Structure formats: C-alpha cells, structure tokens
Amino acid sequence: MMLRRVVAMFDERSGASPFVVKTLRYLFPDHWSFLLGEVALYSFLVLVGTGTYLALFFDPSLAHVTYQGVYGPLRGAEMSQAYKSAIDISFAYKGGLLIRQTHHWAADVFVAAIVMHVMRVFFTGAFRKPRELTWVVGMLILVTTLLEGYVGYSMVDDLLSGMGLAIGYGVALSLPVIGGNLALGLWGSPYPGDHTFESRMFIAHVFIFPVIIGLLLGLHLTLVAARHHAQFRRMRRQTNQRLVGVPTFPGQAPRSLGLLFAVAAVLFLLGGLVQINPIWQWGPYEVALGTNGAQPDWYLGWLIGALRLMPGFDVTIGDYTLVPNPFWGGVLFPTIVIGLMLVWPWVERRITGDRRVHNLLDRPRDAPVRTAFGAAFLLWVVLVFFAGSADRLYVFLRISYTSMTWIYRVATFALPLAVFFVVLTICRELQRSDALEADREAAEEEGERALRAASPQPLTPGTERATAERP
Amino acid sequence: MRRLGRWLLMAIVAALGWARHREGRGADADAGDDGRIVPAGDPEPGAEIAVLLLLVAATLCAVGFIVVYAIDAIGNQTQLLGIAIGACFTFLAAALILVGKRLIVTEENEEEYPPAGHPEEQQELVQIVEESGSRFTRKRLLMTTGGAATAAVGAALVTPVLSLGPWLDTSSLANTPWRRGLRLIGSDGLPMFADQVEEGTFYTAFPEHANHDEIGAPVIVVRLPPSALRLPAERAGWAPGGVLAYSKICTHAGCAIALYRTPLFPPTSSKPAMVCPCHYSTFDPASGGTVIFGPAGRPLPQLPLYVGGDGVLRAAGNFSGPVGPSWRDVREHPT
User: Which of A209, B67, B270, B278 is the most buried (most CB within 10 A)?
Assistant: First the structure.
C-alpha cells in the first residue's frame, strides 16, 4: 500500500515515527475557552502572511515626494515615500487594500485574543505549577506584540502615526536620568528623528519583533505540550494525575484547522467590508499638525488613558528634572500592570503556601481571592482604558472633559476596591451554595439507599446499561 | 449553469457511492479486526454530502476571487475580493468542523500526566556538570575570568549599536531655528503681518528658511486684548499689540497644539486656552503659557516678538525655555 511505503521511506531516514505517533495521539481536553489561544495563534499566521505581502510594496523611506497618484484629494500634496507607498498599496494595486485592512484587523484581533486567553488562564488558575514558565513566556509575547503593533502603524507616516510617535518620543524622554540619551539614540536626532529612523522601525516591525514573537510562541507551545494541557474536571475520570481528552489526530485536527479557516474568514471579511485606519483621510504627518479626537489602536488605549489621567507636574530637584510627567502613565503604569501579572504565580504561591502540582483547573469561584483580585485589577486597567476615550464620550454625553477626568481619577481607585469585595462575596456565596448542593445530593443518595435496603428490588434497566458502559 | 448542475449531480452520486463503499469496509473492519487504534463508527452519508457541497462551494468562491481580481471593470473590488475569499474560508471552516463533529470518531482517551520531575535525571545532570570540572584547580578564578571575557565580548558585539545615534551628546535637544530678527512665515508660506492676526483664532507660523520637520520650528500665534495679558514682568514687550507666539509642541509628550479654546460667553465661559489634542494639556496664553489643566509638567515656551518696520512679525530672540517634552536638563539651560 502507498501510505505504508511513504511512512517507511521517511521513518527509515528520519526515525521520526515514534515522535509523530506521540504527537498525533497528544490529548486535548475539550473546553471552548481553550480555543482563545488558538485564535491568537491563527491571527498571527494571518499577520505573517498578509504582512509579508505588504512588505513587498511598502517603501520605508522618508524622502519627500509630491503625490501624483490615483487618489484625487491628495494629488499635489507633499509627503514621505513611506506614506505614498502605503497609499499606493491601498489604491494602486489590486487587492492591496484588502490585504492592508486584513493585516490591521488581524493585529487588533490578535491582541484581543491574547488578552482573553490571558484572562482564561488567570481566572482558572492554569498558570500554577507546573505551568508558571508558560505564563511568563505568554506575558513576554503580549508585551512584544504591543510594541510590534505600535511600530507597525507608526511607520506608515500618516498624521495619526506621527502623533503616536510624538507621544512615544515624549515617553522615551521621560525616563528618569537616561531619557534624553535613550530618545536621541533611538531616533538618531531630536524628534522627528533622522531619515534612518524609518528604516529602524521597518526592520523592527518586519523582522526583529516578529522573530521574537515567533520564537516565544514556539517556546510557549513546547512548554504547553511538555506539561500537557490542564483540564477542567468534567467527569470523575479526570484527576490531577489523569488527563482525558481528544487526540490531535484524527479528533482535534479538523476542528482546529476549521478554526484556522474560521479566523481567516472573519479577518478577510472584516478586511474587505469594514474600513479600518483610512490613512488617506488623515493626510501626511508634519510635526506642526495635530487633530482632535485622535485615538490609537484599541490595545494602546490604556496607555493614552493613563497619560491623560495624571495631574500635571514634573518631579524636579532644583533645576534637575528627575521625573517628567509622561513617565507615570507611559512607563510606570504599564510596568506595574505587566510586572504584577508576570510575578503573580509566585505571589499567589507565597500567599497560599500552595506548592503542589495543579493539573486540574479552578472555576473562578474556587479561588475567591484570586478571582476578586483579578476582577479588580482588570477593572482598574479597563477604567483607565475608558478614561482614554473621555474626549469621544464628551461628544455623546456632554459631560465636560474636566469633570470626566476628575470622575475617572477617583473611580480608578474607588471602583476596583469596591469590586474586589463584591466579587469576593459572590465567590464565597457560590462556594457555600455548592457545598449545600453537595450536602443535599449526599442526603438524597443516602435516603435512596436506605429505601432500597428496606425493600430489595431488581436493578432497573437504566442502571444496567450504565454499568455496562463503564467496564 | 447547466454544466455546473451536472457537475454537482455527479459529485453527489460519487459521494453516495463512496459512502456506501465505506459502509461496507467499516462493517468488515468491525467484524474482522479488533486491533484498531482509532475506534470504528457508523458512516454518515448525509454529513459526507454536506462536506462535499461545502468543499465545492469553497472551490467556487476561490475561483470567484480570481475572477474578480482578473476583471478590471469591477468596482468595489476590495469588498468583492473580501467577500469571495472570506466566504471561501467560511465554507472550508464549515466543512472541516463538520468533518470533525460528524465524520471522525470522537475519541476521548485517557493518559497519565507526565511526572512532576525526574529526580534521577536531575541527579545525573548535576553529577555530569560537577564531575566535568574535576580537573580544574582554580575554579573560582576561572569562573571570574570567563565571566569577564563573556561580558567583554558581549560589550564588544553591541558596541556598533552606538552608531545608531548620539547617545551621550544631548545638546542637540535644545536646538531651535529661532534667532532675533527672523520673520514669522505662516502655513501658507507668506510672511505674517501683525495686523492680520485676529482674536479668537490661532495661526501656525515657522521661522523663515527653516526646515518644518523640526520640533523647534512651529509656533502658535494668537492675539489677546493687551489689557487681558498677565505676562511675567521680564516678558514685558514680548507681545506687541497683544500678539503672542508659543512653541506649538506640547511640553507633555510632543504632540502639536492643535486646539484653541475661545470663550463663547465671556462672563461665565472659561478663558482662552491652547489645548493639545493628545492628552488635553491646556495652556494659558495670557499668563505666559502656564498649565491650567492636563498632564503637562511645565509651561509652553514663549517666543518674544516684535513688529518690523514692514509690519511683519519677527522673533525678538529664542524661546523662554527648551521646546518639546520634558527631560533631565529641560530646566537647566534657560535660554
């Protein structure tokens, strides 16, 4: 038979058969929430594919040109070669806009899927021993992804990307002591930087960061496979030592491949039908230009919010500016958020004293303090995120921007604290009702047993089948 | 169209035939062979036909994508291309999910989790490493020297990175193109006359002959009633006729000040202010660019002005302070 010959041919030359068999029979426990990580992985594949295509047309050069292309409203405008090539991708090449918009959507979905995956892992306690390293690598992927996305939309050199870069420059300058050197070193000269800055962003976006993400992703998946998936306890057979799941092949493969195509379908439909970042409307960037209502891609909204919420002061010692203001929102805030998440597995170990191996996942209620902390922490970041859109909310609500800023300044501290105690109480009440339910079931079982003992009966057909199924 | 119909019919017939064929084989396997790895299951001809149809649909959509790409006359190409390829992927996804749910036996297998650790191998590893160095007599010294060599080689390898930019000399951060006597050129490229500047709006100006791509260049020009000015004493005469110029670059994070707030009803409205749209730092033009709201940590640098004999606004010197976002030395060299 053909298949047998092919397998023999490869196995005799690689010796890979045992490994392949093991891979094909690797078990995936079944739960919908496990798909979030896969959605992120597949968005990354779409990003690499569409990004490679875009790189064939994008010209990372700040050379000045006068636009004479197909898009009428910009004809005659002075712009950089980079911006012009991005406009050309959108209008001059067939399918270019589809790929560009799909790439942008895929980036937004990629980060969203990562964030939801992180939430799943956090609230089910999947980060505990033996999976702490997997968690840390995942966090590093998230951080690299944020940088990758930022550089990606910054190198287009439209008005919005320029405004975002100005903020990045301000944040780099704000690092205590070394800020000036760092910003000058990265940009090559005072903002907006010398002409090589565009090449630096380009190589970072198409090579350095993607390679880092790819390597970390490989490490992440290797670690997952090495320790196997954690599982929810849906049946008695599933224990801390025993895993029940669907094998990679044939069970999991078509579903996962189906998910890949589903993700690709959603991204390409979005890219084809829902406009995103219409750079031709923003126009080319100049340092003297700005626009009202400018917002970054959603995954940087929390940083805009943090920068906006800070009251205005620089920390100075005499004439020495120790901490310029953007440091608080642009550096310290994300450092606290990411840092706390990075060390959380060890914080929880310290608090609970629990050093055991955990292959069974918690339901959120099973760990009330973790869940309450997670909810409060999430709310904290989400509130700061919404503070970043207060200028847009003003348009709808007509509450003055100043008042909203003060409301947010109070709410970002008060509400998470309140939510912590509310969630804690809810979890404990749910635990209590679980215990009650278990008691009731035990009592009913006991009652039935007593009844059966009183009047011996033959087994009902139903019980017979149940016993037969589980040999 | 008719040919398409015939193909579909053929596909369905072929599918049915294949399904029946599989049925026969499945029965055989169940009867004869107990050594299966993947458990047997019953065929589902209905699901197979559905999968076939979905694959046919995906094929048609993929062909449709190529057709839309090839025909130049089609408008809304982006939308149609997106629909074609999106639908193609949707059908593929549906086919695969159907295969996974209905046509492949869903086994739920069990296995042991890998052991938490391998104490023997750990011991072996430690032993190998420890024994490998048994011929060394000056371990500590060697470690220190090796560490130093590693650090030096590492440093040597990253040294070329220093060429990326001036890492040590930060003097260029204080540069601006403004000098006494330079005329203000408006964004229309023409010299800015003092009596052109009206109240209630703002103008952007650059020094003549300057590179616009420099954060030290752009200024925001506004006019206030001279009676409303509350400039510091040493800036008397910086605002001829109430015309003021400030750096257009926000001292918070470097965005351009692109908003100007003017009172709609002066008795109760807030006073005029220059606002940055990035984080809403708000600066007071009347009092020398002081921060009245938002995160900026220091005032906007003011550019002293005078009106030349030709009526054109000219700079009377450089800014009152460094332009751009704050950093270490931003308060140390008042110019």
Answer: B278
Q: Give the per-residue pLDDT at B14.
A: 59
Distances, alpha carbon B76 to alpha carbons A207, A457, B257, in Å: 33, 75, 38
Domain boundaries along the sequence of chain A: 28-234+243-356, 363-449
Closest chain B residue to the Cα of A260, Cα to Cα: B93
- The secondary element (H helix, E strand) that includes residue B259 is strand B259-261
pLDDT digits (tens, 9 = 90+) for A203-249: 999 999 999 999 999 999 999 999 999 999 988 899 999 999 999 99
At A294, the pLDDT band (50, 70, 90 cuts) reads confident
Q: Residue A45 has which token pair?
A: 């594949």
- For chain A, helix (H) and strand (E) counts, in that order, are 19, 6
Q: What residues 84-113 of chain B have any CB closer than 8 A to a CB of chain A?
A: 85-90, 92-97, 99-101, 104-113
Q: What are the tens digits of pLDDT across the range A113-126?
A: 999 999 999 999 99
> What CATH number is given for A28-234+243-356 in this structure?
1.20.810.10
Going by DSSP bridges, is the β-strand pair B305-307/B313-315 parallel, antiparallel, or unpaired? Answer: antiparallel
Query: Of A78, A95, A213, A238, nearest to A144 (Cα)?
Result: A213
Calpha distance A277→A298 (Å, rounded): 12
Q: What's the number of CA atoms in the CB half-sphere (13 Å) around residue B178?
A: 31
Q: How far apart are CA A254 and CA B55, in angstroms?
A: 14
Pairwise CB contact (< 8 Å): A273 & B172: no
In whole angstroms, what is the distance from residue A162 CA to residue A285 CA?
6
Rounded distance, CA A393 to CA A399, Å? 8
Averaged over successive runs of 10 residues, the pLDDT of chain B (335 residues) comes to 60 55 41 72 94 98 96 89 97 96 90 93 95 91 96 96 90 93 95 95 95 93 95 94 96 95 82 94 96 95 96 96 94 64
Nearest CA of chain A to the CA of B310: how many Å?
26
Q: How many residues does chain B have?
A: 335
B204, B253, B298 member nearest A288 (Cβ): B204
**Closest residue on chain B to A196 (Cα):** B164
Q: Rounded to an integer, what distance in angstroms lies between the CA atom of residue B334 and that of residue B320?
A: 7
Task: Measure the CA–CA gap between A300 and A163, rounded to whole angstroms.
Answer: 13
- A88 with A95: CB under 8 angstroms? no
The CA dihedral of A143, A146, A149, A150, to the nearest 10 degrees, is -120
b/e code A295-308 from CB counts within 10 Å (16+ = b): ebbebbbbbbbbbb
Average pLDDT over residues A292-305: 92
Q: Which of residues 210-249 of B touch A (CB under 8 A)?
A: 212-218, 248-249
User: Helix A401-454 vs helix A301-309: angle between axes, to the nearest 10 degrees?
Assistant: 130
Q: Rounded to an integer, what distance in angstroms lies between the CA atom of residue B250 and that of residue B246?
A: 10
| pLDDT tens string A407-455 | 999 999 999 999 999 999 999 999 999 999 999 999 999 999 988 887 6
